[in-house]
Amino acid sequence: MVAIIPIKPLDRAKSRLHLPAKQRRRLALAFAGDTIAAISACAAVRSVTTVTADPRVAALARELGAEVIHDEARDLDQAVQAAVASVTRGHRDLGVMVAPGDLPALRAHDVCALLAQWGGHDAAFVPDRTGAGTTMVLAAPRAEVVTRYGPDSAARHRELGLRPLTGAPERVRLDVDTVADLERARALGLGNRTTAELARVTPLSAD
Fold first, then answer.
1. Which of 25, 49, 111, 181 has CB 3.0 to 4.6 Å from 42, enough for a Cys bridge?
2. What share of the chain is helix, strand, coil (3-state, %, to 5)?
3. How large is the average pLDDT for residues 176-201?
């Protein structure tokens, strides 16, 4: 399995968190670090590639042992396609996982459990906690990787024929966009970087 993690520039990240811009940027970077670390620590994942135009994200990804591809695409799906074309040239016999960079409660065992549930034989996706969005997309070796992220992406992925993995671990389904999401992630247990960053943050305001 190879993992691709597209991460937008920090200046445009997490606008729905009711925090000062500097704190949002720092939290978004912490989310990315915890996500990359968790996915990298799953033994079934052979390589992790981060797709980003942000030098701060790129530096952290390299520090964590991930490869980095500069994001020159106009939207998320195009960024994924460009990364897939680059990464799979050297790993054509491995499946592909596309994951967001905002899963700060994720653990390596959640990633491994998800891959075991999936089985590696088809195209599948993980609906987010609301059921309307998507966190991860999975594709079998040599299969086309198709994503349609954005509003109501779960419905679009179903229409494309991807199988929903509704039994995925909760931490895999919990991407953090709002303060309520972050509080839920904190209840599940956050990664080290996000935990440390939250200790510096002013009290969170309700959504």
1. 111
2. 40, 15, 45
3. 94
